[in-house]
Model the fold of this input.
Amino acid sequence: MRERVMRAWEWARPVRPARREVLAAVPELDEGRPPLLFVPGFGHGAWAFAEHWLAHTSGRGFPAYAMSLRGHGDSEPAPDATLRAYVHDVIQVAADLPRQAVLVGHGAGALVVAHALARYPARAAVLVAPVLGGWPTFGAALRRNPAGTLPAVFGGRLRLAPRQLFSRELPDADARRYAARLGGAARRVQWALLNPDEPEAAVGRPPVLVLGSPDDRVVPVSALNRAARRYDSAPLLFPGLGHDMMLDARWREPVDAILDWLAKEPAPDPSRAGA
Done:
């Protein structure tokens, strides 16, 4: 247990600091509710949550923050970043928030959050359309989008088509506009997705909600079920939505479900923080 807690090798090889973009929307009246930290998936930046979810969350009384991982959005470029560096970014931003935060990870950002939970005592966590990696997930992407997925095997950039990310309800102009803003993840992190390390148990065992869509063309329902089983639950599904739920035409449905869940979910027991 001592080695797991101390993580001596991490102290010996610290993550290089990086400038990180963080956007915020705070309610006019502070009612003491936990802040939400939105963590975008690879290729996305804080803008993906600032479009709709950030203001909507604040409007419902929850402080809302969205970050860009290093190498994404307006954060510092980091072509050689590792998954460990992304996890470090999330922990550092969360630790600077005024209260114990709820971590909300989308896509591969959910994998980053799953690892961050082993180091940061979150109030709760939400995994939105989680891309947790491994060959089953990669195989599904390869079947659905071989031209955009195959280059990633050889160190190229993973490319997702607009209609792989959004439902038909979203106008084509909006789908193309959002897709044009997508960047890429560091090569080392793309490789890590093919054979990811299993996340350690979450500190304090906070409640975890998994949600997605049966019509997601990136994450199959089987992957949603596997992710939810890890946290002894079942996924909350939103038929008709695409992978980028926070930008799709019916973006209000999943974020309202998250906020409704948080409003009635009890806080984790502090006495289990070392469990």
Summary: The first strand starts at residue 21 and ends at 25. The CA atoms of residues 144 and 217 lie 7 Å apart. Strands lie at 21-25, 36-39, 64-68, 102-106, 124-128, 208-212, 236-237.
